[in-house]
UniProtKB/TrEMBL annotation:
O-methyltransferase dimerisation domain residues: 95-167
Protein name: Uncharacterized protein
Residue stretches making up the O-methyltransferase C-terminal domain: 201-411
GO biological process, one term: methylation
GO molecular-function terms, A-Z: O-methyltransferase activity
Family, as annotated: Belongs to the class I-like SAM-binding methyltransferase superfamily. Cation-independent O-methyltransferase family.
Keywords, alphabetical: Methyltransferase, S-adenosyl-L-methionine, Transferase
SUPFAM superfamilies: S-adenosyl-L-methionine-dependent methyltransferases (SSF53335), Winged helix' DNA-binding domain (SSF46785)
Organism taxonomic ancestry: Eukaryota, Fungi, Dikarya, Ascomycota, Pezizomycotina
Pfam families according to UniProt: Dimerisation, Methyltransf_2
UniProt cross-references to InterPro entries, sorted A to Z: COMT-like, COMT_C, COMT_dimerisation, SAM-dependent_MTases_sf, WH-like_DNA-bd_sf, WH_DNA-bd_sf
Length: 439
């Protein structure tokens, strides 16, 4: 369990910050790595935590990973104590102001009109974006208090390393999804609870009320291709980072041991997960299934990718019968958490009907820890944040181990949860599910 003193003093926290800073600084110096900075030309990731293939620095070892986490926890608590309980409480209630500013920044593409080098006046920036100058300046000045953009001189603004992230397409899509989709559901929580008490339905959510539609999100996106593409960009970005990296799928299961087998990636989007697996399992073939429009785009974008001759795409709705029978593995990555038990059990049920005696279902999703197992920073950033997103947008949840056991039994009594492997530094766990073997 992650031990956290519930009542640390200012001095104890300052000493913890200093000690962990020293560990991290020594690590960076010893490996000739860039120092963290918010300057516009700074390296955009903490070295060793960015997307593999983009961030080529060595992955963090366990000691450095823990030091970073301790530092973030101590620094956060230190800031709260320095503010005092009353101010700290008030600060926690005004996150919607920043979300509103980021929605404005994203929608009017302000980041793209700010020079990568140098600055621009608020007046000229507003003219380029087609917005009111005074309003633009007020939004950016508030965002600057959180490290997004920086005023260089009176009336002028420039990028920081944080705001410059908006120039990366998939990160931009992530901000667009959070502020354009999820943000609208937040104010509707009480209304949804009162209108649909205890609902497990896909179309009786806070998101539905916020967007004034009776369609579940993904069905709605079928009629809104730009928003579907934005969602896919968000998923790509999340999968590329340290916390949700697809690499954990490769490391946590013996794919090579399947030999010449077939993996069906159910709801697999653009097939990035299968591409990762293909690099370590040269004898496997893959079928990536998703909705028709997603498959059409994936086939266009990935036509020349490495190993694409072993990866086929197939249009399929996982709420219908699974057409591929007796696959070695049916892979569900980041799927079940989008659905309440009622619907997640249906997804699993269709796979059971297609399984052969040696087929397995690999579920890659979060297994919620007990409170206190993770640090407060890790728990908030990953587990609790995602759980709230599932509640607001899907009437679903992030499940604890008992919840996964219950879901699997509900789907089919012949199924058993064989193993759970958690990966340090990664939010997701890898679960192996199979058919019970006769005694």
């Amino acid at each position: 369990m992650a031990h956290q003193d519930p009542n640390p003093t200012l001095l104890e926290l300052a000493q913890q910050v200093q000690a962990d800073c020293r560990i991290i600084i020594d690590h960076l110096a010893r490996n000739a790595l860039p120092s963290p900075s918010l300057a516009a030309d700074a390296y955009p990731f903490f070295p060793g935590t960015g997307p593999p293939g983009v961030d080529t620095f060595p992955r963090l070892n366990e000691d450095i990973r823990k030091a970073r986490t301790r530092l973030q926890v101590a620094a956060t608590t230190l800031a709260q104590l320095a503010a005092g309980p009353a101010d700290a409480a008030l600060t926690g209630t005004i996150g919607h102001f920043m979300s509103a500013c980021l929605q404005y920044i994203h929608h009017f593409r302000l980041a793209e009109h700010v020079p990568v080098d140098g600055d621009i006046s608020y007046k000229d920036l507003a003219a380029k974006a087609g917005v009111v100058s005074n309003q633009c300046a007020r939004v950016l000045k508030f965002a600057a208090t959180k490290g997004w953009f920086r005023q260089t001189r009176p009336g002028h603004v420039t990028h920081t390393a944080i705001s410059k992230m908006l120039l990366m397409p998939d990160f931009r899509d992530t901000i667009g999804y959070v502020t354009g989709e999820s943000f609208a559901g937040g104010p509707k929580m009480v209304e949804a609870v009162e209108k649909y008490p205890g609902s497990a339905e896909k179309n009786e959510t806070c998101w539905n009320l916020g967007h004034n539609t009776d369609l579940p999100m993904f069905e709605y996106f079928e009629h809104q291709p730009a928003r579907m593409q934005r969602f896919m960009g968000c998923m790509r970005y999340m999968a590329s980072g340290e916390s949700f990296s697809t690499k954990n799928v490769v490391d946590a299961f013996d794919w090579q041991g399947l030999g010449k087998g077939l993996v069906v990636d159910v709801g697999g989007g653009f097939g990035h997960c299968c591409s990762e697996i293909a690099t370590v399992a040269p004898h496997l073939d893959f079928i990536v299934q998703d909705l028709e429009k997603v498959v059409a785009q994936a086939q266009r974008e990935r036509a020349n990718d490495k190993d694409i001759d072993r990866i086929k795409f197939q249009a399929h709705n996982f709420f219908t019968a699974q057409p591929v029978k007796n696959a070695s593995v049916y892979l569900l990555r980041f799927i079940c958490h989008d659905y309440s038990d009622k619907y997640a059990a249906q997804i699993l049920g269709h796979l059971v009907a297609a399984m052969g005696p040696n087929s397995r279902i690999i579920i890659v999703d979060e297994v919620m820890p007990e409170v206190g197992v993770l640090s407060s920073v890790e728990e908030q950033r990953a587990s609790r944040m995602l759980d709230m997103e599932m509640m607001l947008s899907f009437n679903s949840l992030e499940r604890e181990e008992e919840g996964w056991q219950s879901l699997i039994e509900q789907a089919d009594e012949r199924l058993e949860l064989r193993s759970i492997r958690r990966i340090p530094g990664n939010v997701l766990a890898v679960m192996e599910v199979g058919l019970k073997q006769p005694n």
